[in-house]
Amino acid sequence: MEKAKSIEHLHSILYDMLLEVDRICKENNIRYFLAFGTEIGAVRDHAFIPWDDDIDIKVMREDYESFKAAMKENLGGALKFKEPIDEKPYFFDFVPRIINTEYTLSDDPNNLQNHPAIDVFLVDHVPAGKFFQKGMYFKLKLIHALAISKRKHIDYKSYGIVARAGLIILGGIGNLFSLEKLIRMYDRQQRKYEHVTTPFRFTSNFAFGIQAMYDFDIYERATEVVLERGKFPCPERYDEELRLVYGDYMTPRKMGIVHFEEEE
Asked: How far apart, in whole angstroms, are the C-alpha atoms of residue 152 and residue 159?
C-alpha cells in the first residue's frame, strides 16, 4: 500500500473513486446525491474544499439495498464496499463506505479509517413533531455511544471531564452487548418509520453530526453540479438543504474530522 502524498493527490484518488460510483449508480438507475462538505465544494467552488479528505454522499433508505448490491457486484480492483460490521470486532461508526485499499492516509495502526473513502449517509423517515424527532435522535445517539465501547482505541484525553465520565459509564454498559446486537439495535431505530408516511427525512447515521430535518420531497428532484472535471447529482433544492445544516455555507470555514496526515 502507498500513502497518499498530498491533499491534492488524495483529491485525485477520491475523484476517480467518485467517477466509478457515479458510473455504477447511473448504469443501475440508482439515486444518490453529493452531501455535506463534498456538496458545498461542488456548489460553491466546483472543486473539493481544500482541506476535505473524504467524499460524502447520501442514499435514500429505499434505494440502499440496490446501492449496496450494485457496489458489491461492480466495484473492482482496490475499491471495496464496507459496512460497519466488516470492522468486527472493532467499531468506528455506523457509516457504510467505499474505500480504496491501494492507499493509506496515516501511519496510525489504530486508525480504522485509514484509506481514501466515500462515506455513505442514509436518509430515513422521521416523524412529525419535535418531541418524537428528538426522541428518535436521542436513541440513535445513545446506541452510538454504547457502540463506542467497541472502538479499537479511545483517546479519553480528547474529551472533557463530563464527556469522559459519560463515555466510561456507557462504555461499560456497551460491553454487555455484542457489536452485532448494537448494529441491529441501531438499524431498527433508523428504520422505525420506514413504512410510515411522514413529512420529513433525516440523515440517520450521522448521529454526532449537525442534524437537520428535511422536507420529505426535498430529494425527489435532482440537478447536476460541476465538481472538478465532471458533473454529479445534488438535490435540486440544494441551497435549502445546505442552509438547514450549515446556515451561511458560502463562507468557507474549516470543520469536520481529519483523517489524512500530510507529510511535512
From this structure: 17
Q: What is the mean pLDDT of residues 150-176?
A: 84
Dist. CA 29–CA 207, nearest whole Å: 29
CA-to-CA distance for 181 and 21, rounded, in angstroms?
30
Which range scores top for mean pLDDT: 13-22, 109-118, 132-141?
13-22
Q: Whose CA is closest to 149, among 124, 170, 128, 119?
A: 170
Q: Is 231 helix (H, G, I), strand (E, B) or coil?
A: strand
Q: Are 114 and 106 in contact (CB under 8 A)?
A: yes
Contacts of 169 (CB under 8 A, 6+ apart): none
Task: In whole angstroms, give the CA distance from residue 133 to residue 203.
Answer: 12
> Strand 79-82 relative to strand 97-100: parallel, antiparallel, unpaired?
antiparallel
Q: Which of 73-77, 122-126, 209-213, 228-232 is least confident?
A: 209-213
- Read off the pTM: 0.91
Cα(54)–Cα(260) distance, rounded to whole angstroms?
Answer: 9
Contacts of 178 (CB under 8 A, 6+ apart): none
* Angle value at C-alpha 40, between 36 and 42, nearest 5 degrees: 120
The pLDDT tens digits for 123-154 are 999 998 999 999 999 999 999 989 988 988 77
In sequence order, which residues have a C-beta less than 8 Å from that of residue 225 and are 6 or more positions away? 34, 39, 42, 43, 46, 231, 232, 233, 234, 238
Residue 174 to residues 53, 86, 213: CA-CA distances in angstroms?
Answer: 30, 19, 28
